[in-house]
Write a structure and sequence with these properties.
There is one protein chain. The chain has 6 helices and 9 strands. It has 228 residues and is of the alpha+beta class. It folds into 2 domains: 159 residues, no CATH class; 57 residues, no CATH class.
């Protein structure tokens, strides 16, 4: 997973670097698994607001940097233009490996919603599109740059997963196979595999659960330690 710090720079001119293929940028999980949110660089609209980059009635230009262990590993240029209730964020940077780098320069719309307190909350509108179709347009607080992509887009467009959700589904296929072969309910199989005896109040299922538990443990070993 990426473990990096982000910060704005007061420099008005961007030093374009750190696109996909530059530096150490790991993948999460297997090659055929969905990319993890934690393996992507992101832009957080709330962070931009806190840093004063997005502020009603103002324009700002600078560099947004990612660093690791105090050393800068990537940066992009930005130009923010915010009005009272909407605005625009221009992003410009390069992407690709050395010798095949491509310069990206595009705009992300900024919109707001009214809070119960009377204030406004800022959002990005995702500009990603598939096969030349219309832009996604989802209202999101974070945009991600996945290792396999060139633009910052929402989690849905990049089809990103969280580490926690991947771990929670780690044994789903095994549980379903065991449920089908044993003719036991999926919930019962999961409880048995987790070593949960709390549901063993039905005498009809008690022996079946025990047999399943013993057979499954021989196949995959104890699962309690994996936090399933």
């Amino acid at each position: 997973m990426i473990s990096e710090n982000t910060r704005p720079s007061s420099r008005a001119r961007c030093v374009i670097m750190g696109g996909f293929g530059s530096g150490r940028w790991g993948y999460g999980g297997k090659g055929d698994a969905r990319t993890l949110v934690e393996d992507c660089r992101n832009l957080d609209v709330n962070r931009f607001v806190r840093e004063g980059i997005i502020r009603p009635g103002s324009r700002s230009m600078g560099t947004w940097e990612w660093s690791r262990h105090g050393e800068r590993v990537a940066s992009i240029g930005y130009e923010a233009d915010a009005r009272a209730d909407a605005g625009n964020l221009r992003l410009f940077y390069s992407s690709g490996r050395a010798g095949k780098r491509e310069t990206l320069d595009y705009h992300v719309p900024l919109v707001t919603t009214v809070l119960p307190s009377g204030g406004r909350r800022w959002w990005f509108l995702c500009v990603a599109s598939r096969n030349g179709g219309a832009a996604c347009g989802r209202r999101v607080a974070k945009l991600y740059l996945a290792p396999s992509s060139k633009i910052f887009a929402c989690r849905h467009c990049h089809r990103l997963a969280y580490t926690s959700s991947r771990e929670s589904r780690k044994y789903d296929s095994l549980f379903k196979s065991l449920a089908a072969s044993s003719c036991l309910p999926l919930g019962v199989v999961k409880d048995a595999m987790k070593g949960d005896r709390s549901r063993r109040e039905d005498a009809r299922l008690r022996k079946a659960e025990y047999d399943l538990f013993r057979a499954a443990q021989k196949i995959v070993g104890p699962l309690q330690e994996d936090g399933v």
